[in-house]
Design a protein that fits this description.
It is built from 14 helices and no strands. With 285 residues, the chain is mainly α. Helix 4 packs antiparallel against helix 9 and helix 7 crosses helix 10. It is globular. The N and C termini lie far apart (104 Å).
């Protein structure tokens, strides 16, 4: 096979069963690392199972809701549900935690993480294609659905936490966007532009290049144990250029006058008044 045929052959890869299995393993392992999940698995296996399914199929649930389709449609994929449920059981209830110990081996964990990133590309492209059939040539809808399909597990994390009895609105992905959600949004924009022929590149070439980027940066972040986004410098420059500081001058003055013990300029007149009272009292004495 010639070199130019590699992207085309890569774009024809089938996700089931191996890549889907890697996605389920990586997702359920990430769920188990959340605080309090092991206790939930003992107290309520049904809630734990439902959280695992949201981790595995969150993109399908969210994209279906956005397109006005039944959010439980993913349950019709019986084989995928059984496969994901088997992974869930092995991760949480395998004797001596053997299953998780096997995947704590770094090379195996890197392999699973890389395969999961491959499925992200396919989810984005499938979401965009599906949105294009429902809303023809609606670019914003295509971007939104592709983003939801590729990063749905992160975008509905607050709902998944509610299933486990946890409410943390400050962890909303729209407030503090994680790297997977950001890179999925970028991918949704790129593949939408390519589908609308605004980007002069063949789809299989874009799929290949984008997936290579995902896998390389994911492996690099795991090896270096770096949680910061590679887009952070660009984000900081863009935000400073287009949005800048959102504080009003009066608010800035008020904050600069605030002392370290929490008192502000507004407290000073009362303090001066009390000091004047003490001086007059001393004079009368």
């Amino acid at each position: 096979m010639e070199l130019w045929q590699v992207p085309l052959s890569f774009s024809r890869l089938r996700m089931f069963p191996f890549f889907d299995l890697a996605h389920y393993v990586a997702s359920v392992l990430a769920l188990k690392e959340q605080r309090g999940v092991v206790e939930v698995s003992v107290r309520s296996p049904l809630a734990c199972w439902f959280s695992a399914m949201l981790y595995c199929f969150g993109g399908s649930v969210l994209s279906s809701l956005m397109l006005g389709e039944p959010p439980v449609a993913f349950l019709a994929k019986t084989i995928n549900i059984l496969l994901a449920s088997s992974v869930w059981y092995l991760v949480f209830y395998c004797p001596e935690d053997i299953f998780c110990r096997c995947f704590s081996f770094l090379p195996l964990r890197l392999l699973v993480a890389g395969m999961k990133e491959v499925t992200r590309t396919w989810k984005i492209t499938d979401g965009i294609a599906h949105a294009d059939t429902v809303y023809k040539d609606a670019c914003l809808i295509m971007v939104a659905v592709g983003w939801a399909r590729g990063a749905g597990g992160g975008l509905i994390s607050n709902f998944e936490q509610l299933v486990r009895g946890v409410w943390k609105p400050e962890t909303n992905e729209l407030l503090h966007m994680s790297y997977p959600v950001k890179v999925t949004l970028i991918g949704a924009v790129l593949f939408t532009l390519q589908r609308r022929q605004y980007l002069p590149i063949a789809k299989h070439n874009l799929v290949f290049l984008y997936t290579i980027f995902l896998v390389v940066f994911k492996v690099k972040m795991m090896l270096t144990r770096c949680a910061s986004s590679p887009f952070a410098p660009i984000e900081a420059a863009v935000c400073q250029m287009f949005f800048g500081s959102q504080k009003t001058p009066s608010k800035v003055k008020g904050e600069s006058a605030t002392s370290s013990n929490g008192s502000s300029v507004c407290d000073q007149p009362s303090e001066q008044h009390e000091g004047a009272k003490k001086k007059t009292a001393k004079k009368t004495e």
